[in-house]
Amino acid sequence: MSFDFGRIPGKKSFADDYISTIRMNVAKYPKKTAVIFGDQTMTWTDVWENSNRLDFALLELGLNRHDRVLILLPNCPEYPEVVLGINKAACVATACNFRLTAPEVAYQLNDCGARAVILKSAAELETVLSIKDQVPALEHVIMVEDGAPEGVFDYKSLLAQAPAEEPDVETDPGDVHLLMYTSGTTGKPKAAARTYKSDYHMANAVCHELGLGSDDVYLAAAPMYAAASMGYTFSTMMSAGTLAILPAFIPDKIFPEIERVKATWIFMVPIMYEWMLSTPAEVLGASDVSSVRHVVSCGAPLHNATAKKMIDSFTQAKVSNWLGASEFGFISRYTYENGPAGEGCVGRPVFDLELAVFDEEGNRAAVDQPGVLYGRGFSMWEGYLNKPEATKEAFLDHEWGTVGDICRQGEDGNFYIVDRKNDMIITGGMNVYPVEIENVLMAHDAVADVAVIGVPDDKWGEAVKALVVKAQGSEISEDDLIAYCKENMAGFKTPKSVEFIDQVPRSMIGKALKAQMRKKYWEGKDTVI
User: Fold this and answer.
1) Helix (H, G, I), strand (E, B) or coil at 442
2) Phi, psi (rounded to 5 degrees) for 406
3) Mean of all residue pLDDT scores within the chain
4) 67 Cβ contact list (under 8 Å, min separation 6)
5) Helix (H) or strand (E) holding 21
6) Is 155 helix (H, G, I), strand (E, B) or coil?
7) More confident residue, 356 or 428
C-alpha cells in the first residue's frame, strides 16, 4: 500500500549530503567567520560564493558529472571552497599529497582519470608540467597563486569571471564525491570511493561524538589532504564552525595559535603531539589553551605515554584516540576520562557504525581472540576505483567491510588493535606501503631480494627499514641505496635504514614472512604497530 498526501512534486534543494547542510548554515550564519588563515578571514558567504564561482568555472571548462578533479594543494584558505566547488559541479574531488614525486602524481592522475588539477604554486606546477605528456586525460591545470604561465588557468581570474549564484547542478547522495588514496598488498595506492551520503553520515558522527556546534573553532594543523583532516574539515563545515588553518605544522607555534584563534578542538597525529609537547615548558606555559574542549589523535597508534602527556598539557579538555581509515572515515573512539586502557585500545564504534571481529572462516571471534576487524554502517566507502578484486577482498558480504586491521574485543567492550593484516607502515602519521618501496629497490642492479618493514622509532612512531639481499658481487652500501630511494620516491617513504641479510625468509608459496622479520625489533612492545 502506498500513501498519497497530495504534496506538490518537484526537485528538493536538500538531501543527506554535506552541500545542502552548508547551504542551510550559510542562510543562518552568512557573516560568521568560516576560515581563519593568518591575518586573513573569510565568512561563510565568502566560502559559499567562491565555491559557486568555481562550480561555474569548471562547468564552463566542459567538465561533466563524475569527472575527477585532482587537488594538489598544501594547507591554504582555498582548500574548503575548492572541495565544495568541485562537488557542487557534481565532479569528484581527488585529494593528493602535494609532497609526492612527479611519477607518483602521474600514477594518481592516470588511475583516477582526472581531467583537471587545481594546484597552489610554481612548485606543484613544475611537477605537473613535467609529467603532463604522460597523463592523456588531463586537460586543465588551474593555479591558485599569481604567475600562471600561458596554458595554465589563473584561479582568481576564473572566479572573478564567474557569477556568485549557485548553478543548478543535479547531484545524488549516492554519487561518489571524493576519492581518497590508500593502499594494500599490491603496493600501488588505490582510491577509496566515498559518496556524498557516506561523508554526510561520517561528519554527523563526528559532530555527535564531539558535540560540535557553530561556536566551535577547529585548528587544522595536520595536512588537509589526509583522510582524517578531510573528515574533520567536513564536520566543521557541516556544524557551521570555524576552520583555523595553519599553513604548516611548526611545533612551537601551535599553543600560541590556539590562544590567538581561541580554538575549541584540535586534531593531530601522535608524533605531532610528541613534537609539540617536547618544546620548552616556558614556551608551552606562555599560552592560554583553556579554550580547547577536545584534543583528538588519529592517523597512527596513540601510545599511553603520549596520551598522558596530552592529558597533562590540556587539563580542561577531553583527550580521545580515534581509529580512522580512508575507507570508513572514522571507525572508533576512546576517551581517557577513566584513564588509559591497555596499549592499542581504540575504544568503541563511533555513532551509527557497528564493529565486529571475525576469524579466518568468517565467524565471530570470541572475546579477547584476535581476528580481522570489520565494520558496517552508513559512513562506509563504496569500493576501490578500478580495482574490483581489492573491493571483493575487503568485503565479507554485501555490508561488512574491512581495511585489514587485526583486532580483539576485550571484556570491557573496547576494541584493541593488535597488528595489521596488510603490511602498511605508519611513520609520522603518513601511510607507507612496503611493496611500493620494494619495487623501487628491486629495480636496482645491486639488489637481489628485499623486504621492507616498519620498526619502532621514538621520533616517528615507526621507521621504514629495508632488509636487502645484495646481488652477487655487489659492493653497494646503505648510504648508496638510501640516496637511490630519495631520487625515486617521496622523502617520507625512503628507508631510514638498510640492513643487508643473506636471504629474505619466505613461506612455501614465496610470501615474505614479515611478521617474523618484524618480531625481533618489536620485542617487549605491547603491540607490533
Assistant:
1) helix
2) -90, 130
3) 93
4) 91, 92, 115, 116
5) helix 18-28
6) helix
7) 356
Residue 484: CATH number of its domain: 3.30.300.30
Burial environment of residue 372 by CB neighbours within 10 A (0 to 12, 13 to 18, 19 or more): buried
The verdict on residue 39 lying in a domain is: yes
Nine cell digits for residue 277: 609537547
- The whole-angstrom separation of Cα 446 and Cα 215 is 59
The reply to whether 87 and 207 lie within a common domain is yes
Helix%, strand%, coil% for the chain, nearest 5:
30, 25, 45
Which of 330, 346, 370 is the last residue in one of the domains? 330
Grid cell locating 366: 570470541
Beta strands in 48-147 (DSSP E): 68-72, 92-95, 116-119, 140-143
Contact between 60 and 160 under an 8 Å Cβ cutoff? The reply is: no
Per-residue model confidence (pLDDT) at position 509: 46
Is the same domain home to 316 and 457?
A: no
Cα–Cα distance between 67 and 91 in angstroms, integer? 5
Given a cut of 90, whether residue 398 has pLDDT beyond it is: yes
Q: Are 102 and 127 in contact (CB under 8 A)?
A: yes
Strand order in the sheet with 447-457: 447-457, 461-470, 497-500
Name the domain count of the chain.
2
Rg (CA), the chain: 23
The pLDDT of 183-187, averaged and rounded, is: 51
Asked if residue 468 belongs to a domain, the reply is yes
Looking at the domain assignment, is residue 506 inside a domain? yes
Q: What is the pLDDT, as a whole number, of residue 434?
A: 83
Last residue of a domain, one of 330, 346, 364: 330
Q: Are residues 218 and 88 in the same domain?
A: yes
- Give the pLDDT band (50/70/90) at residue 343: confident
Whether the CB-CB separation of 85 and 51 falls below 8 Å is answered with yes
The reply to whether 144 and 285 lie within a common domain is yes
Q: What percent of the chain has pLDDT over 90?
A: 79
Torsion of CA 407, 411, 414, 415, to 10 degrees: 0
Cell numbers placing 284: 608551552
Write 513-516 long-range contacts (CB < 8 A, 24+): 514/423, 514/434, 514/451, 514/453, 515/419
Taking Cα atoms as reference points, which of 281, 245, 244 lies closest to residue 263?
244
Range of the domain at 105: 14-330
DSSP state of 363: P
Is residue 310 a contact partner of residue 297, using CB atoms and an 8 Å limit? yes
CA distances from 91 to 145, 386, 423 (A): 23, 17, 33
417 assigned to some structural domain = no
